[in-house]
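Researcher: Re-running this chain for the archive, since the previous output was lost when a drive failed. Same request as before.
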Amino acid sequence: MSNATFYIIDPDSPQADSSGFLQYVVFLASHFAAQGAKVYLNCEDKHQAEQLAENFWQVDAKHYIAHNLVGEGPKYGTNIEIGYQEVKPSWNRQLVINLAKNKTTFANKFAEVVDFVPCDEKAKQLARERYKIYRQAGFQLQTIEIDHNP
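Model: Regenerated structure tokens:
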């Protein structure tokens, strides 16, 4: 059975702003990749994918982890691949971290889905819609409140 985990973002947390959120996504992706998972970061668009890739370069050198945008890097990619709606991962990935606001059609291709419940009410409603879609698709669901200090 596939799993979907929703991380709830507290309005007072560092992850509530876009910069803190992207840093947290880098942390999560690195955490899962360090455990051996093949991670796909599903961004809203090409601009967000490139911005996220840039965030991977901003981490301290001792915490750097290899990553690539879809279509770049080695033939079979790295443990972390970054893409967006119009492109597909270059090879099999087990876990997707979804940053797209209203797309879930990709989810059935992954054993694990990570998604987020943002602070903004409109974005929160879209997260609820995704939650319902995952549930109807048979995903095992759970929610986790983000720790303020990753």
